[in-house]
TrEMBL record, chain A:
Keywords: Cell membrane, Membrane, Transmembrane, Transmembrane helix. This is Amino acid/amide ABC transporter membrane protein 2 (HAAT family). It comes from the Bacteria. The keyword Endoplasmic reticulum does not apply. Residues 383-396 have a biased composition (Basic and acidic residues). It comes from Rhodovulum euryhalinum. It is a multi-pass membrane protein.
From TrEMBL, chain B:
It is found in: Cell membrane. Keywords: Amino-acid transport, Cell membrane, Membrane, Transmembrane, Transmembrane helix, Transport. GO terms for cellular component: plasma membrane. Its main location: membrane. Belongs to the binding-protein-dependent transport system permease family. LivHM subfamily. This is Amino acid/amide ABC transporter membrane protein 1 (HAAT family). The chain crosses the membrane at residues 16-35, 42-61, 102-123, 190-216, 237-258, 270-298, 310-329. It is a multi-pass membrane protein. It comes from the Bacteria.
Length: 404, 343
C-alpha cells in the first residue's frame, strides 16, 4: 500500500495510529491523581511534539542520510515563522497561504545557503552553516527590524492591511474557519482528554512528512545519500557528481524546517529572532542524536522525549518532591529532595546534558538502538531457550573421557 | 588616524580573548585530534575562578567597632575580611583589591586538573570515534558544566572589578603625540592584551625551545613514529590538554573585569572562537592567533559609525562574512596545513 512493502505499511499504520491517538495515550493518569502532572496530553505540548517531530525528521534526512552535520537549521525555522506571520499581516489569519509560502521561501534560502556551504564537508560545513544561521539571527535582531520587528518579535497589529479578512472571519489562526486553538474536551470518568484542532492539523502534516521521509529512505535517492555518507571519495571516483544529491537533501530538510517554523507560527501567531539562534539549531541536533540519527522513528522519539522533559521535568519543584518522598523519615526525605533538586525544575537542562552525554557515549545509535538492544536481548534468549529444551533428546551427554 | 588607532585598540582585547581560546582549541585539535566544544565552558570556568577567589578573599567576620556608632547610637558592627585581620588593613585591603589577578594562582591548578580529568575520563575514549561524536559529547559536556555553574552561582552576571590602580582609563593618544582626549583607553584592556601576548609567547616558547615541546611537536606531525621511538606520547598529550585548559581558564580569569561573568559566556565565545580557528586554519597555532586578532580588530572597525552608515548591520555579521569568504576562497583557512580535517 502507498508504494510501500508490507512491513513498511504496517510501520506507517502504527505511526498513524499512535499519532492520532496521542491525546488519549499521553493522558494515562486520572486528572485528580498525584501523577497527573506527568500527563502530556495538553494541546500546547502535543503541538510541539508534532512540530519538532517534523523539524527533526527533516534534519535527519540531511544528517542521518548524508552525514552532513548542519549547525544552522534554526535559520529556516525562523524564516518559516516570519513568513507565516507576514501572511497573517497582509492577507488574513488563514494559515494555508502562509504555510505554502514558508515552504517555498525556506527552500530558496536553503538553496542559496546549501549551494555555498556544501562546497566544504566535515567541520567546515558545520561552521559555514553556523555562520549563515548566526548571520541571519544577528540581522533579524538589528538591521532587518522593519521586516522582523527586532527584539519585540513579529506579531499582527490591528492596523495591518489583512486584505482577505472578512467581517466575521476568526481573529486567530484558522484553516478555512477551523480555528486552531479550539479543542473538544471529553471527560471520561476522571480522565480528561483534550482533542485540539491545531494538534490534529499538525499531526496530519507530521504523518505526511513522515511518509515522505519513509519514501525517501527507501528510494534510490535515499540509497545514493547513504552511499555519500559511507564513502564520498569513492562515489566521486566512480564518476558521480554527488553535489546535486547533497544539495537536494539540504533543500528538502530546509523545507521541513521551514514548514515546522510555519506551523509554530500557525499555532501561536508570533515569530521571534531567538528561534534562529544557534542554540535552537543545537536543540534539533540533540533531538536527532538522542533518538537515533539515520533511523526513521528516532528523530521523532528524540523530539518527543526532549519536549516532554522540557515541559514536565521543569514543572517539578521542591513542593512536589517533598510530597513524593513524604513517606520517608524527615531526614532522608530532606536529603533526597536536596539530592534531586538540581536535576529538576530550572535545572532540567543539567539532566538533559547528562542524558545526552550518556547516550553519545554508550548508545551512539540513540534511543532506537537502545530499544533494539533490549528487544534483541529478549529475542536471543528465546532462541537460546529453544534448542536447549530439545537438548536432552538430540544431544545426549557426551561420554566422559576417563572411566569413572 | 586617531579613529583608526582607537578601533585597533578596541579590537585588541576581544581579539586577545579569541586568540587565547582559539590557541587552546588548536592545541587540543593538533595534538589529540579532538574537536573540543567544551572549550568555551573552560573559559567560563576560568572566569568563575576569579569570582570564587573574590568571594574567598572577601570572607569576613563581624567585629564591633567601638569608635563608630550606627544611627541608633549602638556600637557599629563592621565586616572585617579575614585577610585584613591577618595581614593588617593595608596589605589585606590590597589583596582583596587585587583578587582578579590573584585568581590566576587558583585558576592554574583548577584548570589543569579539570583538563586532566576531562581528557582521561571522557575524551580518551573518543579518539577512535568520528569527529561528529567528539563534537556531540563535548557539546553535552559544555551544557553540563554550564548548568553546574548556573546551579552554584545563579543565572545573573557577577561583577568583579579590576584592581583600583588599573581600573581607570588613560590618554593613549597623548602619549603617542596626538591631540589629547581623543584616544582614551581603559588600563585593564591594555593589561589584558599584554597578558595574552605573554601567554601566547609562553606557549610558543614552550613548544619551540623545550625538549618536551619538541616531542609534542613531533607527535603532532607523526604520532605513530614518536610512539614507536618508545616515547609515551599519550601522557604528553594529556599534559598538553591540561595546558590548553589552563590557557582558556586564564583567558577567562583576566576577562572578568571587561565582561561580568555569566554562565553562558562560554558558549557565546565558543562559537566565535570556532570560526576563528577555522579561519586561521585547523591545526595551525600561528593561524589561530593571527585570525583571533584579525577578527577582533575587524569587528571593532565594523562597529564604527562611519562604516555602519555605509553598510548597515555590518558589525553584526562581519566575522561570519569573513569566515564564509575565507572558507570558500582558501579552503584550509589562512595558514592551514594540508591533510588536516579534510575527510
Amino acid at each position: 500500500m502507498f508504494g510501500l512493502n508490507a512491513k513498511d505499511t504496517r510501520f506507517l499504520l502504527i505511526v498513524v495510529f499512535l499519532t492520532l491517538a496521542t491525546p488519549i495515550l499521553l493522558q494515562p493518569f486520572p486528572e485528580s491523581s498525584s501523577l497527573a502532572q506527568f500527563n502530556a496530553g495538553y494541546p500546547d505540548l502535543m503541538q510541539k511534539f508534532a512540530i519538532f517531530g517534523i523539524f527533526a525528521i527533516g534534519f535527519n534526512i540531511l544528517f542521518g542520510l548524508t552525514g552532513y552535520l548542519s549547525f544552522g537549521h534554526a535559520a529556516f525555522l525562523g524564516v518559516g515563522s516570519y513568513t507565516v506571520v507576514w501572511m497573517y499581516k497582509l492577507l488574513s489569519y488563514n494559515i494555508l497561504p502562509g504555510l505554502v509560502l514558508s515552504i517555498i521561501i525556506s527552500a530558496l534560502f536553503a538553496l542559496v545557503i546549501g549551494f555555498i556551504s556544501l562546497r566544504r564537508s566535515g567541520i567546515y560545513f558545520s561552521i559555514l552553516t553556523l555562520a549563515f544561521a548566526q548571520m541571519s539571527y544577528n540581522l533579524a535582531y538589528s538591521v532587518l527590524t522593519p521586516i522582523t520587528n527586532g527584539e519585540t518579535g513579529l506579531q499582527v497589529y490591528t492596523n495591518d492591511p489583512q486584505v482577505l479578512m472578512g467581517a466575521n472571519s476568526p481573529t486567530s489562526p484558522h484553516l478555512f474557519g477551523l480555528v486552531m486553538r479550539e479543542s473538544v474536551q471529553v471527560d471520561m470518568g476522571g480522565w480528561l482528554f483534550t482533542f485540539n484542532i491545531g494538534y490534529y492539523f499538525c499531526a496530519i502534516i507530521a504523518i505526511l512528512a513522515f511518509y515522505i521521509s519513509l519514501r525517501i529512505f527507501r528510494s534510490p535517492f535515499g540509497m545514493m545519500l547513504r552511499a555519500i555518507k559511507t564513502n564520498q571519495t569513492r562515489m566521486n571516483y566512480t564518476g558521480l557528481n554527488s553535489r546535486p544529491y547533497t544539495l537536494a537533501a539540504f533543500v528538502i530538510s530546509g523545507m521541513y524546517a521551514g514548514l515546522a517554523g510555519g506551523l509554530l507560527a500557525a499555532m501561536d501567531p508570533l515569530a521571534g529572532a531567538e528561534r534562529m539562534q544557534w542554540t535552537a539549531s543545537g536543540e534539533v541536533v540533540l533531538m536527532t542524536i538522542l533518538g537515533g540519527a539515520g533511523t526513521l522513528m528516532g528523530p521523532v522519539l528524540g523530539a518527543g522525549f526532549i519536549k516532554y522533559c522540557e515541559n514536565i521535568f521543569s514543572k517539578i519543584n521542591d513542593g512536589i518532591l517533598h510530597s513524593w518522598f513524604a513517606f520517608l523519615p524527615d531526614g532522608i526525605e530532606n536529603f533526597l529532595v536536596t539530592l534531586v533538586h538540581p536535576f529538576v525544575g530550572k535545572g532540567w537542562h543539567l539532566t538533559l546534558g547528562i542524558l545526552f552525554m550518556l547516550v553519545v557515549i554508550f548508545l551512539p545509535g540513540g534511543l532506537v538502538e537502545g530499544f533494539q538492544r533490549i528487544s534483541r536481548l529478549f529475542r536471543s534468549k528465546r532462541v537460546k531457550d529453544g534448542p536447549r529444551r530439545k537438548d536432552p533428546e538430540h544431544h545426549p551427554k557426551s561420554a566422559p573421557h576417563v572411566a569413572e | 588616524m586617531e579613529a583608526i588607532i582607537l578601533q585597533i585598540l578596541n579590537g585588541l582585547d576581544k581579539g586577545s580573548a579569541y586568540a587565547l581560546i582559539a590557541l587552546g582549541l588548536t592545541l587540543i585539535f593538533g595534538t589529540l585530534g579532538v574537536v573540543n566544544f567544551a572549550h568555551g565552558a573552560l573559559f567560563m570556568i576560568g572566569a568563575f575562578c576569579a569570582v570564587v577567589m573574590q568571594r574567598l578573599l572577601g570572607l569576613s567576620y563581624e567585629q564591633v567597632d567601638p569608635t563608630k556608632t550606627d544611627f541608633l547610637g549602638n556600637p557599629l558592627k563592621v565586616q572585617v575580611p579575614y585577610v585584613e585581620s591577618w595581614f593588617g588593613p593595608e596589605i589585606g585591603g590590597a589583596i582583596v583589591d587585587w583578587s582578579v589577578p590573584l585568581a590566576i594562582v587558583l585558576a592554574i591548578p583548577v584548570m589543569v586538573i579539570l583538563g586532566f580529568v576531562m581528557e582521561r575520563g571522557l575524551i580518551k575514549h573518543f579518539y577512535k570515534r568520528p569527529h561528529a561524536d567528539q563534537i556531540l559529547v563535548t557539546f553535552g559536556l559544555a551544557i553540563v558544566l554550564q548548568e553546574v555553574i548556573k546551579y552554584f552561582f545563579g543565572a545573573n552576571p557577577i561583577q568583579s572589578g579590576a584592581p583600583a590602580a588599573l581600573s581607570g582609563s588613560f590618554d593613549f593618544g597623548a602619549m603617542l603625540g596626538f591631540d589629547p582626549n581623543v584616544v582614551i583607553y581603559p588600563f585593564w584592556r591594555l593589561v589584558y592584551f599584554l597578558f595574552s601576548l605573554v601567554i601566547i609567547a609562553g606557549v610558543f616558547a614552550f613548544l619551540q625551545f623545550t625538549t618536551f615541546g619538541m616531542v609534542v611537536r613531533a607527535g603532532m606531525a607523526d604520532r605513530e613514529t614518536v610512539g614507536l621511538l618508545g616515547i609515551d606520547i599519550d601522557r604528553r598529550f594529556t599534559i598538553m590538554f591540561g595546558l590548553a585548559a589552563a590557557v582558556a581558564g586564564l583567558a577567562g580569569v583576566m576577562y572578568t573585569p571587561i565582561l561580568a561573568p555569566n554562565y553562558h559566556m562560554g558558549m557565546d565565545f565558543l562559537v566565535l572562537s570556532f570560526v576563528v580557528v577555522v579561519v586561521g586554519g585547523m591545526g595551525s597555532l600561528p593561524g589561530a592567533v593571527a585570525a583571533g586578532f584579525l577578527l577582533g580588530i575587524l569587528q571593532s572597525f565594523a562597529s564604527m559609525n562611519e562604516v555602519k552608515s555605509i553598510i548597515p548591520g555590518i558589525d553584526q555579521v562581519i566575522i561570519y562574512l569573513v569566515a564564509i569568504v575565507i572558507l570558500l576562497t582558501r579552503p584550509r583557512g589562512l595558514m592551514g596545513r594540508k591533510g588536516v580535517m579534510e575527510d
